[in-house]
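Appendix B. One record, verbatim.
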Amino acid sequence: MRQTEDLPTPDRKERRHRRFNLQFPVRISFLRAGLQRSLMAISKNVSIGGLLVRTEKQIPSHTPVRLSMDVRGLGSGRTVRLLGEGEVVRVEDLGAGFAIAIECHQPIKEMQEYLPVAS
């Protein structure tokens, strides 16, 4: 049985990639009011097509972002830097921070080496 969050709804696309519960620091960079901003987040789940992060500060929906995440201990035990560009597609106020969903423009190719590709 699939969990409710995995079911497509009119405002949510069906997921194309398998999600993995990985918690790693993520640096997110974006422009706001013409200035380059950067903040740190923690990943909650990751796929080759995007990720869900938790942050203390909000990033508005539809904001283009760049991300950098150092992933340790997948397969080889070495640290792998994952880089991506995408857009904020969903923001949820958690009361004590925000859950931010980011859809990547291109698959995070480095993920394919360490995680199985979803069918």
